[in-house]
Amino acid sequence: MEQMEIRFSGTGGQGLLLCGRLLAEALVGEGRTVAQSQSYEPTSRGGVSRSDLVVADAQVDYPLVTALNYLVVLEQSAVAISYGLIKKGSIVIIDAARVTTPPEGDFTLHALDLSDTARALGNERVTNVVALGAFSALGTTCRSESLEQAVRKGTPKRFMNLNLEALGEGARMALATAV
């Protein structure tokens, strides 16, 4: 596998750093090398936030993203930070309710009801995990079992069942719309 670059972007408080950690855990569990970086504005909630992963089967050549293969955007204000980094042929997933003007380019765009699905599950705070499930179903980064194991290991017990349900709903939604 050649090097792969992934970004989860949105605003502070949406759990983007958790998404990056969970995905990194799943990928490392499958024997891949992962370099993870993150950035967030000084405000604890509402500032632009991102979690980036560079993934390779061997050593990562450069630890920061330069050409995204996958982009997940949960908030309109976070779209602009990825312009110029989206690689031709990439997969871009947006929250249809919160990203009203998606990025344009030569890539596959999936506008999904991520936050609406999380609300239907009873807690909008799991939008990030719904997005992670959709990402997992649309991408070819890791096995769903590895990601489920990372969610079991990396989330508090009291939220584990909700997060596993969110992961599954995200995957089902993505697969249903990809047909």
**Content of β-strand:** 25-35%
CATH architecture: 3-Layer(aba) Sandwich
- Indicate the radius of gyration in whole angstroms: 15 Å
Average pLDDT, to the nearest integer? 92
What order do the SSEs take from the amino end to the carboxyl end, as H and E? EHEEEEEHHHH
The largest sheet is: 6 strands, mixed
Count of distinct strands: 6
Query: What sort of overall outline do the alpha carbons produce when their principal axes are compared?
Result: globular
DSSP helix fraction? 25-40%
Name the strands of the widest sheet in spatial order: 2-3-1-4-5-6
Uncertain residue ranges: none
Count every helix, treating DSSP H or I runs of 4 or more residues as helices.
5
Q: Give the structural class.
A: alpha/beta
The CATH superfamily label reads Pyruvate-ferredoxin oxidoreductase, PFOR, domain III
CATH class membership: Alpha Beta
The total domain count is 1
How far is the N terminus from the C terminus?
Answer: 26 Å
Q: CATH topology, anyone?
A: Pyruvate-ferredoxin Oxidoreductase, domain 3
Which keywords apply here?
single chain; 179 residues; alpha/beta; Pyruvate-ferredoxin Oxidoreductase, domain 3; 26% strand
Can you characterise this structure?
The chain is an alpha/beta fold. Helix content is 37%, strand content 26%. It is built from five helices and six strands, in the order E-H-E-E-E-E-E-H-H-H-H. It has one domain: Pyruvate-ferredoxin Oxidoreductase, domain 3. It has helices at 16-29, 114-120, 127-138, 144-154, 157-178, and strands spanning 4-11, 33-40, 48-56, 68-73, 86-95, 108-112. The protein has a six-stranded mixed beta sheet with strand order 2-3-1-4-5-6, with helices on one face. It is globular and about 40 Å long. The longest helix has 22 residues, at 157-178.
